[in-house]
Amino acid sequence: DEIIGARNTGELKAGVEGQITPRLQLWGNVAQQLGDNGYSDTQGMLGMKYLF
Questions:
Q1: Closest CA to 46 of 22, 16, 20
Q2: What values do phi and psi take at 20, rounded to 5?
Q3: Element (H, E) at 26
Q4: What's the gap between Cα 4 and its chain centre?
Q5: Which pLDDT tens digit goes with each residue over 26-49?
Q6: Is the pLDDT of residue 7 over 80?
Q7: What is the per-residue pLDDT for 21?
Q8: How far, in Å, CA of 34 to CA of 41, rounded?
Q9: Any idea where the domains of the chain sit in the sequence?
Q10: 24-35 β-sheet, strand order
């Protein structure tokens, strides 16, 4: 099995993270992949860390 257009791909990814309070951290990122034959994929992630 193979994904058409996924052989030659490039990816751009950007993110941000920050400490909101001494106990709360947040982060997120977005990634975009592009390839041959119109292949594209977009992903995102959000995260949180809270210290009790």
A1: 16
A2: -80, -45
A3: strand 24-35
A4: 22
A5: 999 999 999 888 889 999 999 999
A6: no
A7: 97
A8: 7
A9: 9-50
A10: 9-21, 24-35, 40-50
